[in-house]
């Protein structure tokens, strides 16, 4: 259950609390002062990241959540598993949580709205919604269908009274598509109710700058080693930066290195004494 239930609030109070978190999450998307979200995948990673200085909101990564469940990314999770994880993460912290909700776990807009309503009830203040049909990131839903799915997510927020922050993903460039189509989709999603455009494939400064200039709203990017530096992304006017499964990779790399060192009868890694 969301934290508010444990403190004695009924369902109406829970939804009011989630609505406030959704408003806060939206307000944290500021061009030039990007919201940095180090992605998490369960309750303990949520707590650890939330306690880090400067962290203002969390976001899950579907890849990391899926791998933690032993299934492939790309809706290898069941809807029930996705909602359970969202509920666990949201209940573990008091800051807003955005959930990577993949394709909404539904083939049509009606299903997307129903499932996003359930996601909001699980405590999510925001969500990612992608526009590609398969894996890898192509083909894409046709434009009208993709727009209707974003609109359905917005309708779910209106139906529940929670203005959920929608980070609409544009997979055009990552799937080998054309720039103009990516921009058309981005602006159509904003018109349908998205709060921010998560555009994959912005691999250099020129592309980031062009996207910020041509998208009629806020821009979110995926980043990691070899990407445009974080300070430069801020200078270019980006509103949000996330790392997807990179945070899981970072964690696993440290774990494997520690296991190797211990197995070789080496020194105890200092982090072995970490208290949480």
Automatic annotation (TrEMBL):
Superkingdom assignment: Bacteria
Protein name: 2-Methylisocitrate lyase, PEP mutase family
Lineage: Bacteria, Bacillati, Actinomycetota, Actinomycetes, Micrococcales
Keyword terms, alphabetized: Lyase
GO molecular function: lyase activity
UniProt cross-references to InterPro entries, sorted A to Z: ICL/PEPM, Pyrv/PenolPyrv_kinase-like_dom, Pyrv_kinase-like_dom_sf
PANTHER family on file: CARBOXYPHOSPHONOENOLPYRUVATE PHOSPHONOMUTASE-LIKE PROTEIN (AFU_ORTHOLOGUE AFUA_5G07230), PHOSPHOENOLPYRUVATE CARBOXYLASE
Provenance organism: Salinibacterium xinjiangense
């Amino acid at each position: 259950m969301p934290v508010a239930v444990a403190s004695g609030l009924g369902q109406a109070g829970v939804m009011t609390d989630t609505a406030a978190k959704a408003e806060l999450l939206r307000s944290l998307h500021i061009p030039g002062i990007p919201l940095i979200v180090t992605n998490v995948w369960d309750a303990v990673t949520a707590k650890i990241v939330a306690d880090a200085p400067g962290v203002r909101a969390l976001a899950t990564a579907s890849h990391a959540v899926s791998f933690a469940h032993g299934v492939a990314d790309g809706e290898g999770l069941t809807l029930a598993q996705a909602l359970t994880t969202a509920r666990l993460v949201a209940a573990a912290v008091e800051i807003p949580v955005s959930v990577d909700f993949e394709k909404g776990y539904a083939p049509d807009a009606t299903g997307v709205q129903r499932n996003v309503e359930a996601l909001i009830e699980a405590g999510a203040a925001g969500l990612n919604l992608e526009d590609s049909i398969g894996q890898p990131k192509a083909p894409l839903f046709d434009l009208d269908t993709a727009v209707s799915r974003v609109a359905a997510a917005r309708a779910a927020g209106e139906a529940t009274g929670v203005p959920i922050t929608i980070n609409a993903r544009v997979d055009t460039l990552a799937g080998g598509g054309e720039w103009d189509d990516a921009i058309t989709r981005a602006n159509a999603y904003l018109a349908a109710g998205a709060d921010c455009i998560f555009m994959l494939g912005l691999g250099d400064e020129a592309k980031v700058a062009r996207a910020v200039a041509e998208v009629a709203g806020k821009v979110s990017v995926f980043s990691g080693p070899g990407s445009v530096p974080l300070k430069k992304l801020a200078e270019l006017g980006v509103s949000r930066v996330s790392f997807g499964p990179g945070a899981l990779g970072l964690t696993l790399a440290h774990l494997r290195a520690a296991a190797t060192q211990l197995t070789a009868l080496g020194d105890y890694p200092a982090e072995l004494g970490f208290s949480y």
